[in-house]
Design goal:
- This protein is an all-alpha fold.
- Helices cover 81% and strands 0% of the residues.
- Helix 2 runs antiparallel to helix 5.
- It is rod-shaped.
């Protein structure tokens, strides 16, 4: 609406005011000639007529100049408005382009992450097969009495067996500590000792099984790489994407094996902070005493005497 009014005013100046003013300026000398020739005005009075002519035309010409100046200002103002609109559109287009480029960059990063992630998953599956094979041969060779649904044991069965063997050693050693000291089971000192006992129990269990130590070491190394990969790419993921890949890793490790992996990441690797940041301890499987496991993990991850469940704080 404002632009239309300005356009009307500019056209009025250009097509009405300026032509009339020019006509008036041109007719002023004619008027003087008529006064001299037709009306008998003396030629000596031309000085007076000159004054009259200047007095009559200069204001008109000045008025024309002012009108043209106003028109120029209007045109420049309109041009500035157009440039402003074009700049605004350009800025919006640049912002849209930047957003599109960022989205493309995110997509490219996600694609690279997915490629690396599933390469590591395939390696993990291969090493899981090796673990299952070696542990199965060990159990058959030593005629271990185990009750399973089939003759050929699965990876879940193997991890369950390892977890039970580790837990037996841990329980025996922690029972000795509790008998020989006045240490309370929920005290920081007890949790500290529990961590050391767990590492010892894990190492003894793995070393007791032929050929398993190197294989299980590779197994943990691959999982560490996957955790690092997820951690360094979490900023380009939405919440559901991050949970998807964490869930995927959990399913590959299995519920039976996750506690072994989790304690190894916390106690024997350099990735404790990544475990904490990614909240991988949420996947821990409580075996009989979920409250104790929650307190233990809270201590191992935070080193804090505050035993409240971390989710209750959120």
């Amino acid at each position: 609406m404002k632009k239309e009014k300005e356009k009307v005013l500019t056209n009025t100046i250009e097509h009405v005011y300026v032509p009339y003013a020019l006509v008036a300026a041109i007719t002023s000398p004619v008027l003087g000639w008529i006064l001299v020739k037709e009306k008998g005005v003396e030629f000596g009075d031309l000085g007076t007529f000159g004054d009259f002519l200047g007095g009559s035309t200069v204001p008109l010409l000045t008025f024309i100049t002012i009108l043209l100046l106003i028109r120029t200002i209007r045109i420049q103002s309109n041009q500035l408005d157009v440039q402003k609109d074009e700049f605004t559109l350009l800025r919006e287009e640049m912002a849209s382009t930047k957003e599109a480029l960022q989205e493309q960059g995110k997509t490219a990063k996600i694609q690279r992450f997915e490629n690396s992630f599933f390469i590591q998953i395939n390696e993990l599956r291969n090493i899981k097969s090796n673990i299952t094979k070696e542990l199965y041969e060990h159990l058959v060779k030593h005629a271990t009495k185990m009750v399973f649904d089939s003759d050929k044991l699965s990876f879940k069965d193997m991890m369950l067996y390892l977890d039970e063997q580790i837990e037996l050693r841990v329980s025996a050693n922690t029972a000795v500590i509790l008998r020989q000291s006045k240490m309370e089971k929920d005290s920081p000192n007890y949790f500290h000792e529990y961590g050391k006992i767990y590492v010892q129990a894990y190492n003894h269990t793995i070393r007791d099984i032929e050929k398993l130590e190197d294989i299980i070491s590779t197994f943990h190394f691959i999982i560490e790489r996957i955790v690092i990969l997820i951690f360094h790419n979490k900023s380009v993921m939405d919440g559901w994407e991050l949970n998807y890949y964490k869930d995927y890793l959990y399913e590959e490790i299995t519920r039976e094996g996750f506690n072994i992996v989790l304690f190894h990441l916390i106690l024997q690797s350099k990735e404790k902070e990544k475990v904490k940041e990614l909240e991988l301890d949420d996947y821990a499987s409580p075996n009989g005493n979920p409250e104790f496991l929650s307190k233990l993990l809270n201590f191992l991850l935070n080193g804090s005497p505050d035993w409240q469940n971390k989710k209750a704080k959120k």
